[in-house]
Amino acid sequence: MRIIRSMANLAILIALAPVSAPAGTISGGAGLDYQSGPKTQSYRSALLFGSTEVGTSELTLAAIRYGDSNIGPGIGAFGNAGVALTPNVRARAIGLRAIGDGSYRVWRWRLGPEFHSASDVTVGAYYLRLTDNAGGSFGSAGFEVGAPIAQGVTGQIGSSYGRWNGDATTTQAALSGTWHPMSRVTFLGEVDVGRNLTTTTTAGPSGGGALGGLPLPVDLGKGNKGSSQTRSSSDVTAAGLVGIRFSIR
């Protein structure tokens, strides 16, 4: 609980900080997400976030309050950091700690490189790991390619393959995008399609921004409330997410 409170307080402080500082650019804001998945599962969340950018490196922290149709409500603390290794290469680390109002507890993290071109195309690869207190664990590897499509619109495609410790495997693809109709408002959208879906990110390129690459506290495709006895299915299913971010710059 101390970790959650500390990150929540830090996110609020960053969000209320001055527009800029000598060390770099500081911003923050709030957001809402809604996601639906297989077997009428659903996920809702409200969050506060703060971001700082220094040169080509950046950090985003957030405090999350969520509700899930399978495991109930809970809170989460999120961090997304991108560190420039060269002018065109970053190392990215994303982590989440979620604590349910009941007994559910989970850690998620993902690590990987990003490659940025002069035309603003971003190619990323990552390894993701999840562990929960019900004995469940999950590992996956994937890639993402993002690029601007039009003024204020960015699109991204990606794919991943993973395995639960119960031997169920996941194979899925994702199509996502962001739209900035106004300078301080961002709309998010994502569709995931695959076998044994395990949603791992919100819409938007993996690189920073308004919670890009946010791992959700729950996995809509698992459907068994955190049990490690995950059942494998050959059915192809889909999950969709919509969200909005309000930024203070």
Task: Give an account of the 3D structure.
The structure is a single chain. With 249 residues, the protein is mostly beta strands. Helices cover 6% and strands 62% of the residues. The chain is built from one helix and 13 strands; from the N terminus they run H-E-E-E-E-E-E-E-E-E-E-E-E-E. The chain has a twelve-stranded antiparallel beta barrel with strand order 2-3-4-5-6-7-8-9-10-11-12-13. Strand 7 and strand 8 (122-132) form a beta hairpin. It is globular.
In short:
Helices cover 6% and strands 62% of the residues. With 249 residues, the chain is mainly beta.
Judged by helices, strands and strand pairing, the structural class is mainly beta
Largest sheet: 12 strands, antiparallel, barrel
Structural shape? globular
Overall average residue pLDDT: 77
> Radius of gyration, rounded?
17 Å
User: pLDDT under 50 segments (min length 5)?
Assistant: 14-22, 200-231
